[in-house]
Amino acid sequence: MSAHCQVTGAVPGFGKSVSHSHRRTNRRFDPNVQRKKWFVPSLGRTVTLTVSARGIKTVDKRGIESVVAELRARGEKL
């Protein structure tokens, strides 16, 4: 599973780890992605989304109905 948020579109960022000796190695900054279930009354079933912490806050603020409608319009698989 890739670290990708279905609501906000957050994806991993890339950069360098810098040691004390200033040696640089590649690293990856993953978003805080979790699988979470919500019940959607209009669909009559639960929907599992892969969302970041910010995505969970977005669902809490806007409501699951609004978010699911936007995802379906975008063509995301639920």
Automatic annotation (TrEMBL):
<dbReference type="Pfam" id="PF00830">
    <property type="entry name" value="Ribosomal_L28"/>
</dbReference>
<comment type="similarity">
    <text>Belongs to the bacterial ribosomal protein bL28 family.</text>
</comment>
<dbReference type="GO" id="GO:0005840">
    <property type="term" value="C:ribosome"/>
</dbReference>
<dbReference type="InterPro" id="IPR026569">
    <property type="entry name" value="Ribosomal_bL28"/>
</dbReference>
<keyword id="KW-0687">Ribonucleoprotein</keyword>
<keyword id="KW-0689">Ribosomal protein</keyword>
<dbReference type="InterPro" id="IPR001383">
    <property type="entry name" value="Ribosomal_bL28_bact-type"/>
</dbReference>
<dbReference type="GO" id="GO:1990904">
    <property type="term" value="C:ribonucleoprotein complex"/>
</dbReference>
<dbReference type="InterPro" id="IPR037147">
    <property type="entry name" value="Ribosomal_bL28_sf"/>
</dbReference>
<dbReference type="GO" id="GO:0003735">
    <property type="term" value="F:structural constituent of ribosome"/>
</dbReference>
<feature type="region of interest" description="Disordered">
    <location>
        <begin position="1"/>
        <end position="27"/>
    </location>
</feature>
<dbReference type="InterPro" id="IPR034704">
    <property type="entry name" value="Ribosomal_bL28/bL31-like_sf"/>
</dbReference>
<protein>
    <recommendedName>
        <fullName>Large ribosomal subunit protein bL28</fullName>
    </recommendedName>
</protein>
<dbReference type="GO" id="GO:0006412">
    <property type="term" value="P:translation"/>
</dbReference>
